[in-house]
Write a structure and sequence with these properties.
Nitrilase/N-carbamoyl-D-aminoacid amidohydrolase; about 280 residues; N-carbamoylputrescine amidase; 5-stranded mixed sheet; C-N_Hydrolase; alpha/beta; 6-stranded mixed sheet
Length: about 280
């Protein structure tokens, strides 16, 4: 039996990088003590979610991948604990900027970077001001414990991304996230649709899904947590609440999931030749 134990870390973050790194390191250790092998942190966890406004000063938060201090810190922690940690960071690459994840394997080696493909632009989530759409394509990494596909926040709303990563061999999908209130409409609560769309990915691809969000009020923008781990049936086998920090951990039998995926027939019965409209922007072939 090949098993994989995953964790989602839900945290309240300050706007001080060192404070957040130390706090999340403690939560990673808690997850490790509970047996976690792959530990997912929230999106852009080094500080407050700065994309709620367009201000040039926030570009100072970005750093190049090479010699990135936060990545180096979690690489050392991954090596010490022998765990896999996808590290979300604001990447400066020459004259452009990306919302990126570095996949740190259990030996502390950076297996590569995924750059967020889908970039949102709306009140409170004005990411197009900061980030160029990613140029890596979707990535799946063969880590020590299993094959992991990573999407970043807005990516999680797109079924195409989940399907591609599963086709590429992913055994689990993980989504670092920063999502909460909508400043333009206080009555709009996206928590349930946010969970449901990813649960749909789990069911349609017969694959576990892990989503790690933040909590707390960051200058009037309130992040609703609700991080979760879903099994391939779409059951929430672990779920955090809307306000408290949490360390969610669950173990999966990957061989059982592989058999279940084959039995469901979703991939057997796919008709790629009929999906040409998916390669267009407007459905016109």
């Amino acid at each position: 039996m090949k098993t994989l134990t995953v964790a989602a870390i839900q945290a309240q973050l300050t706007d001080d990088v060192e404070t957040n790194i130390l706090h999340l390191s403690d939560l990673v250790r808690q997850a490790h003590q509970q047996g976690a092998q792959v530990i997912v942190l929230p999106e852009l966890f080094e500080g407050h979610y700065f994309c709620k406004e367009e201000r040039e000063i926030h570009f100072q938060r970005a750093h190049p991948l090479k010699n990135h201090p936060t990545i180096a810190h979690f690489a050392a922690l991954a090596r010490e604990l022998e765990v896999v940690i996808p590290v979300s960071f604001f990447e400066k690459a020459g004259t452009v900027y990306y919302n990126s994840v570095a996949m740190i394997d259990a030996g502390g080696v950076n297996l590569g970077v995924y750059r967020k493909s889908h970039i949102p632009d709306g009140p409170g989530y004005e990411e197009k001001f900061y980030f160029r759409p990613g140029n890596t394509g979707f990535r799946v990494w063969r880590t020590r414990y299993g094959k992991i596909g990573v999407g970043i926040c807005w990516d999680q709303w797109f079924p195409e991304a989940a399907r591609v990563m599963t086709l590429m061999g992913a055994e689990v999908l993980v989504y670092p996230t920063a999502i909460g209130s909508e400043p333009h409409d206080p009555t709009l609560d996206t928590k349930d649709p946010w969970q449901r769309v990813m649960v749909g990915h789990a069911v349609a691809n017969v694959i576990p899904v892990v989503a790690a969000n933040r909590v707390g009020d960051e200058g009037g923008q309130v992040f609703y947590g609700s991080s979760f781990i879903a099994n391939p049936r779409g059951d929430l086998v672990a779920e955090a609440d809307r306000t408290q920090e949490a360390v969610l951990v669950h173990k999966f039998d990957l061989e059982e999931i592989e058999r279940l995926r084959a039995a469901y027939g979703f991939f057997r019965d796919r008709r790629p030749g009929l999906y040409k409209a998916l390669l267009t922007a407007d459905g016109v072939i």
